[in-house]
Amino acid sequence: MDKCYSIEVIDGITTTRFFRKAKMSAIIEAMDEVLAKHLSPLRLWEFKAGADIDSNQIRDIARYGQKIWPTPSKAAIVASDNLSFGLARMHDAYRVQELHETRVFRTEEAALKWLKEEVE
Prior knowledge:
Elements: E1 5-10, E2 13-18, H1 24-36, E3 42-47, H2 55-68, E4 73-78, H3 82-94, E5 100-105, H4 108-116
Parallel strand pairs: 2-3, 3-4, 4-5
Antiparallel strand pairs: 1-2
């Protein structure tokens, strides 16, 4: 499969950037790749091109994240268009887990500022 994302660690934050509309299969693949490399409890997910997923898939992605991610951890999702932002907010609502925080942002700068704050 042709990857539509890149993963890199920048200042201790695992940054996953989707450069084409993200489908559920690509998001799960990226999650597995990040987990396999044991990169960081701080994660940034950027969806500049948006996402091609529905509300049921959002719920499934959130539940999968609850199963695989170690805690404590923080994840910031950057989605600038309205549809992707709304879908990411749905994910945020489904992703509730003790010792884990997820927040959705419109800009990478705001997301990075939040990620760099102390984990409460």
